[in-house]
Design brief:
By secondary structure, the chain is α/β, with parallel strands linked by helices. It contains nine helices and 19 strands. Helix 4 crosses helix 5, helix 6 runs parallel beside helix 7 and helix 8 packs across helix 9. The chain starts with a helix and ends in a 10-residue tail after the last strand. It binds beta-L-fucopyranose (FUL).
Length: about 500
């Protein structure tokens, strides 16, 4: 009797824990994103605005000796600028509040080298205020770029400058409302005006900026803001200014010993399994330069080139930060707008209809027999639900069957990020002449993976996970068709 009771209890307990183990979500794998980083991933596409004295002196890097009076846009219109970005599908804009020349686009009380010394609006103008307010009006996020290297400031390279830099950061983060990102540029040290010294100043970028203290200041003043640098802490440089992410592009990085302005090794592809979640941002300008130069009016990237960049950045799990340089009027030039408009038209036409709707979906394995982790979650258009398998099943497959053959050339995959980046390799097959034929293979997925191929018409599609250290957690699988006539860019 006692033995029977014992067996019953033990068996009951085992059964219970088996049920709860398989109904529980998979355990997170490796570094995982913070809420702040998840919010940043959601943005996917936003823009840079490079605007300062350089716009008027025709330079890319101002020396720091520019007379503030040269900054004099003839027809500045923050709403025109923000509208151009919003119309292109951007979710936010990051303004160069101060570039390497040290000129401030807001009337900083810590320097006279600012818009307050320009003739623009009689010295009463404030570009940071106008752009941030236009962003708010148009429901766009606003971010700031504050160059650590300052070729104007007399104290640059001494401790006093670090205080100055932090004062300016505090000023920006307390006067202009919510900020979604603070962008720390890695370029620093070299020749400059430096209050009239006109010399070369070198700093040791391992120690000079004392980044942990500055980053903590941002955390305290703007807890929701994600910080950019070569090494995070929240998102990283992709290692080139062409806007092209590596393939693979892991969201993780071995971050011990890395620092802003440090090595770019490993940034393009990320590192696996990595010590930290530090996904990549692809920054690139719509023109050859970051600042406006009239001689580049004919060198604006074409819509096809922009679409190609989108697939090589957003489509590889990174965010795309596309620079739009306001011109001497203080507006986005017509040529840039024309390119952006057609780029948007192509993407809208592509992603208007997800062709998986109505498909029948079957999987080789579903965690907990399907309920919360069913493969049908892949087709529901929700990033918060996902398909997963039992812990022991790491290379499952899923098949979509269509009533009518489906024609597509883009496959869209998303992992469920809160559980980490789990999938290391996958393959896609079409049903052709009575058998499966592989048409694509890939590695990293992360926030989003877009596979752009030739057009395929098939009645069945198979996704095979062929490499994963743990059970996958895949949120979305979409199929799309680009409008006719779009050519992949260079
Ligand atoms: C670089 C800068 O030197 C460029 O001028 C530009 O601001 C780019 C986004 O970052 O490091």
């Amino acid at each position: 009797m006692i033995l029977r009771l014992f067996l019953l209890c033990t068996f009951g307990l085992a059964l219970n824990s088996a049920v709860s183990a398989s109904s529980a979500p998979p355990v997170p794998y490796g570094p995982i994103p913070t809420q702040r980083q998840l919010a940043w991933h959601e943005m996917e596409f936003y823009g840079f605005l490079h605007f300062t004295v350089n716009t008027f002196t025709d330079k890319e890097w101002g020396y720091g000796d520019e007379n503030p009076e040269v900054f004099n846009p003839t027809d500045f219109d923050a709403d025109q600028i923000v509208t151009a970005a919003r119309m292109a599908g951007m979710k936010g804009l990051i303004l160069t509040a101060k570039h390497h020349d040290g000129f401030c686009l807001w009337p900083s009380k810590f320097t006279e080298h600012s818009v307050a010394g320009s003739k623009w609006k009689g010295g009463k103008g404030d570009v940071v205020k106008e752009i941030s307010e236009a962003c708010r009006r148009q429901k766009m996020r606003f971010g700031i770029y504050l160059s650590p290297w300052d070729r104007n400031n007399k104290d640059y390279a001494s401790a006093a400058y670090i205080t100055y830099y932090r004062n300016q950061l505090r000023e920006l983060l307390t006067s202009y409302g919510d900020v979604f990102t603070v962008w720390f540029d890695g370029a620093n040290g070299g020749d400059g005006f430096y209050g009239g010294a006109r010399e070369t100043r070198k700093i040791d970028n391992r120690t000079y900026y004392d980044w942990p203290v500055t980053q903590q200041l941002v955390r305290d003043l703007m807890p929701g803001a994600s910080m950019f640098s070569d090494a995070g802490p929240d998102f990283r440089w992709v290692g080139n200014e062409r806007g092209v992410a590596g393939d693979p592009c892991w969201a993780t990085l071995n971050n011990e010993g890395r620092r802003p302005g440090g090595t770019s090794d490993g940034l393009n592809s990320g590192e696996r399994p990595g010590t930290h979640w530090i996904p990549a941002e692809c920054d690139v300008s719509i023109r050859p330069g970051w600042f406006y130069h009239s001689q580049e009016d004919s060198k604006v990237k074409t819509p096809a080139e922009l679409v190609d960049l989108y697939y090589k950045s957003v489509g590889r799990g990174a965010c795309l930060n596309l620079n739009l340089p306001p011109d001497r009027r203080g507006r986005i030039h017509d040529n840039d707008i024309a390119s952006l408009r057609e780029f948007r038209r192509i993407l809208d036409a592509t992603f208007a209809k997800n062709l998986v709707r109505g498909a029948r979906v079957t999987a080789s394995n579903e965690r907990n027999g399907g309920s919360s982790f069913a493969a049908k979650n892949l087709l529901d258009g929700k990033k918060g639900t996902y398909w997963s398998t039992e812990d022991s099943i790491t290379t499952p497959e899923v098949v979509l069957s269509f009533k009518q053959p489906v024609r597509f050339n883009v496959v869209d995959l998303r992992e469920y990020l809160p559980l980490g980046q789990r999938i290391e390799a996958f393959a896609l097959d079409q049903w052709k002449d009575g058998q499966w034929a592989e048409f694509a293979r890939g590695t990293s997925i992360g926030n989003r993976r877009l596979i752009r191929s030739g057009f395929i018409t098939t009645e069945k599609l198979r996704l095979r996970i062929v490499g994963a250290p743990v059970a996958p957690a895949l949120a979305e699988l979409g199929l799309y068709a680009e409008p006719e006539g779009v050519k992949a860019g260079s």
